Amino acid sequence: MTFSPELEAKIERMFSQYPPDRRRSAVIPMLMYAQDEIGSVTRELVEEVARRTGITPLAVDEVVTYYSMLHRMPLGKSHVQICTNISCMLNGGTELWEQATRRLGIGHKEVSADGKISLEEVECMGACSWAPAIQVNYDFYHQVTPQKLDEMLTQLGAAR
Amino acid sequence: MPYNEPNPAEVRVLSKRFGIPNSQSIDVYLANEGYQAYERAAKMTPDEIVNVVKASGLRGRGGAGFPTGMKWSFLARNSPKPKYIIVNADESEPGTCKDRLLVEFDPHQLIEGIMIAGLAATSNQGYIYIRGEYRYLIDIMNKAIAEAYDRGYLGDNVRGTGWKFHLATHTGAGAYECGEESALLESFEGKRGIPRIRPPFPAVAGAYQSPTILNNVETYAAVPSIFRMGGEEWAKLGSPKNGGTRMFCLSGHVNRPGVYELPMGFPLMRMIEEVGGGIRGGKKLKAVIPGGSSCPVLKAEECNINMDFDSLAAAKSMLGSGGVVVMDETTDIVAVALRIMRFYAHESCGWCIPCREGTTWLRKILLRIYEGHGVASDVDLVGELSKNMLGRTFCPLGDAAAMPTIAFVEKFRHEFEAYIQKQVPAAQPDPLLQLASV
Amino acid sequence: MPDPVKLTIDGRQIEAAPGTLLINAAKAAGIEIPAFCYYDGYSLQAACRMCLVEVEKTPKMPTACTTPVAEGMIVRTDTEQVRRARKMTLEFLLTNHPLDCPVCDKGGECELQDMVFRYGAGGSRFIENKWHVDEKQWSPVVFYDGPRCILCFRCVRVCNEGMGVGALGIVNRGSVSEIAPNEGDHLNCDECGMCIDICPVGALTSGTYRYQSRPWEMDHVGTICTHCSNGCKTTLGVRNGEILRGNNRDRSGINGEFLCIKGRYGFDFYNHPERLQSPLMRVNGTLQPVAWSTALEAVARKFTETKNAGGKFGVIGSTRTTNEENFYLQKFAREGLGTNNIDHHRSGDVVTLLDALSGRANASLATTADLYTSKAVLIIGADLSLEQPFLAFQVRANFRHHAAKVYVVTPEPVREDKYAARSMRAAGDPIWGALDQMRDALANEAELVILFDDSIKGEGVRRLLEFGTALGKPVKYVALVDYANSRGAVDMGLTPDLLPGYHASPQRGLSLDEMINAPDLDVLWVIGANPLSRADLSASSPFLVVQDMFLTETAERADVVLPAASAYEKSGSFTNVCGEVQRLKKGLDVMGTKPDLEIIGLIAKEMGLAATVGPWIADRVFDQIRRTVRGYDVSLPVIATGGAAQTAPVNGRISSTGRPEMIRSVHNDLFASGTLGRYSKILNSVLEKTEGEVEPIEAVHR
Ligand SMILES: Cc1cc2nc3c(=O)[nH]c(=O)nc-3n(C[C@H](O)[C@H](O)[C@H](O)COP(=O)(O)O)c2cc1C
Ligand code: SF4
Ligand code: FES
After folding, report:
1. Domains annotated on chain C, with CATH
2. What is the pLDDT of residue B426?
3. Domains and CATH numbers, chain B
4. Which domain holds residue A116?
5. Which atom of ligand 1 is nearest to the CA of B90?
6. Nearest ligand to residue B294 Cα
7. CA B348–ligand 3 middle distance (angstroms)
8. Measured distance CA(B281)–CA(B253) in Å, rounded
9. Using 50, 70 and 90 to split pLDDT, how confident is the model at B12?
10. Comparing C-alpha atoms, which of B393, B295, B291 is closest to residue B349?
11. pLDDT over 90 for what percent of chain C?
12. Interface pTM, i.e. ipTM
């Protein structure tokens, strides 16, 4: 399996950061960045990461299934992550979550039929003082109001 | 741009460069006392460095408040193995969002703190473990690291002193448990985030089973100011045995939520009223979670308290990670308790029985109560199950789930009972429940 | 030895070596601290939290499984707090464990049941829904039931650390964590079943045993596996004359907890549909079933005629019949039939080794235990993990527990490479070059065990011992052989030139190959062997008598076929590759068959030679062996109680070492063991599943 030249370079740099006999340290970073490029953690990717780090595919699977940001199914083009943990909840995070599921007709870790948007109810993402917060892919949105969410979803291509 | 207006009550030491345009760049950093602390520390022996940190009274900002100087002094410096500096930037304790700002607005301050730890540890390599959700911080950090290499603050021959020190970022992938230091090390080594059996502690066998100093972002970020001011001076910023300032993350029902740098021991009520601008909508205060979701809740009447490790411990709570969550009179404590338990059940790594099964069971009971199917014995059961997790789990995540829950049912018992009485006609007990109860 | 540490557990003064874990110190004093995840010999987990105890001056209760003893420590294992913790942990555990004990294979042998019985509460306050996932089949022999799994991670460790296979892992997080196999939905592994055996509950179950029986309905017969030369003890679960399972019930054999797929599942050849259950005689060119009396009478008549006419006999013995049978057979051949034409398939040069050892200082035979304790081990030739599974397990455990240094010289990559101090590839003469390169490293070891296969024989063995002696360190040796009683067959004199105990025969007889190729053989008698699968009997057409369990290539050509009992159906003894004698225990009878000892005895009786050869009672024959065979005067109680005693027939030169060039190992792997393996359904099904290239049994056995 080959990645884009940029990712290959990144992986090369990653390996150089760890001691030579510790290639395994690159497993999680590699999975994260490769997932961004491929869209999900495919079987092929698991095997590739195993090969490059010198561990078994099973050992990679153990890792993949542990971390909540590693997905084995493709997500939507825009992955909308709504925090409902304590500070966000106190500021309407739960309502935002319900609003989004109603509008899109999909639930936790589901993808809209056109593949444009997926939803995830997430745990605290470090935006408590600017709650309620949403992350779309890796971009933060703070103090999101129902109106802002509505506009956001429209912009991301959600049907009215 | 910082996310909230500064407040006059703040004592801005760590956050002093926040708001300066381009504060991330090494030039701005150098123009604002940057890397002076390193120059000072570079002239000291490792023991001298440790003594300065000891004198500062700095206590770990990751949650447990362990004295940092002492931690550094435990490092097995004589070991023939390489020594590592690991930075815990996994910030995932609900209510906490300060490490994010420290990296976003002043990455070089962090690098400088790490370098001083590196000198104290006679280390040649550091890693910053950043939670996967903070991708943009990884980019910021990488850029700052590249600048530091460029200017000779990192590399094979740091500032011509002959000392070799390298630094790199490392991404997590979504797991609260990986903030726990030994689980973090496992994750760093490319494994599941399962904590390790201790002893040995990281100071003896940490990253790659080598001696390791592991601290929170804020802890390292405090180090340069300590070396600029001198340990004793820095200590005086705070309260006795609780040196310096602290980044408090004020959230919830206040008018001006935000991250504020205040002296250790700052009174909680002042923080809410003066810094936070009081409760939103003129409502009354009900309760405060003083240090992140794992800290036992304080009722309004318990909030006349100074925010430092010892005062909160005396009140049977904790200063934790500095996440101050303010709840007004409309807050539904059952909903809060349930949400917090959902978090812990989701984040339990699954290694040990009491945490894995305990958090899951508690989540189920709390959900049942919340949905109106609670039974009278449930409130006691929630308390008892929590107490039976406490102190018996493999790592402190089990405690983190149990402690706040015990406080919720003890301090707000009537709210749980209200849910139960409202919903379940006492005259018609469910025969199934009869069979299943002891 | 460092000074022992003194501590107090439950008010009792106890001494323990420094470093001893509390859980073991307590156990030695007869105090049980319950545990699920702790398992002696494997890495520590501290996951189940069953072993929490109170230690004075320690605020939190520590886990006894990870806390080493310390001087003056005061420990309490039976306080209110400890009891409450145990009970609560069990209640937590049972929130997701299905209470399907009535239909669970493990019922009656389940550690969770035992713990709840002892420390738990009968009731539960859990009234929510349990989490459920369906049971999965991972291989022909391994099933996994997720909800029953208590996540003690024993299976993962035994597979990874114990077997060196690493086919099991942990997936997901929190309460939905599960054990997972290495190929996503199925296992690609040794299928040894160690994971099933070590599972404290019924989460991992065996494809052959599941839903067959309650454990208490079976007789548990501890006997010896018949498949390879390692001689593992296996406990057969027998009910109504059927073997339902093989396992390691009490871990009392030399193999402790170890069994490979053959020992655990490979017993099933015994009721293969093609098992012979009646004597056969050639009538008008085809084999027809006949009564035992008819068959025995025909054989006796032919034998007597041939003997009286001064005809030529050939006798080919077996590597899977007992010492008693082998001893009796050679005695009958030599004293009853008057022939020295007796031999068997030799797979390792035991004879030259014994000869070369005699009189040599610092050199001896190794026991299986030595492989676990020796500071260094050298493996020459064999792919040990595949061909000698238990020996490989010992070496691996030695590496894990004692950091033993392992050296490997093999033609192909082997599993031992992974942890070997040094691995080299060589076959034939280059082996000596490789050994030369290792010489300095080996000489630095305090002691050494050398295992060698058939690539070293004859003069090679002498050269190897010279090499070993020159190291100047104590060296022990194992000559690897193939089958369950390969070693016993040479010891008992199933050779043309050596009598039992390696005394020279006054007159040398024909070797196996010579018999097959002899132009003038009148009678060929084959017991438990299949020489015609490899060779052609074209030079002559003797009267062929075959004793076997199946109609092998040899039996098909026979004039009389006598159906023999398998090792599970008789008593007697086997000698394993290291020369350790162990008792077989009879588990069942298969109708129509007789043990070879009885068959030989009945032929002798029929010929009127019973008085010459003596009684055909295993115990009586063993007595005779103990008295007459060099090295076999072993302690009876040891053997009688299911132990192993090493025979060491090394105390003088051996006049003849036969023809070492005839020695050849078939290098059976994990899934094969000659005829027995060919008729094991389970070995074949696993092979089909994992390799997809093995023909069905019918096709193999044309
Ligand atoms: C479940 C759990 C989660 C934790 N998460 C974090 C975290 O996100 N960031 C952090 O700095 N420390 C976290 N900690 C604390 C670390 O284990 C460790 O004590 C800390 O990083 C040490 O740094 P300090 O001495 O500077 O506080 C966590 C602890 C536990 C038990
Ligand atoms: S308390 Fe136990 S299950 Fe929970 S996170 Fe820690 S080790 Fe994992
Ligand atoms: S045996 Fe100690 S925790 Fe499981």
Report:
1. 5-93 (3.10.20.740), 111-271 (3.30.70.20), 280-347+485-690 (3.40.50.740), 350-480 (3.40.228.10)
2. 37
3. 26-235 (3.40.50.11540), 245-328 (3.10.20.600), 333-437 (1.20.1440.230)
4. 78-155
5. 8
6. 1
7. 18
8. 9
9. very high
10. B393
11. 88
12. 0.93
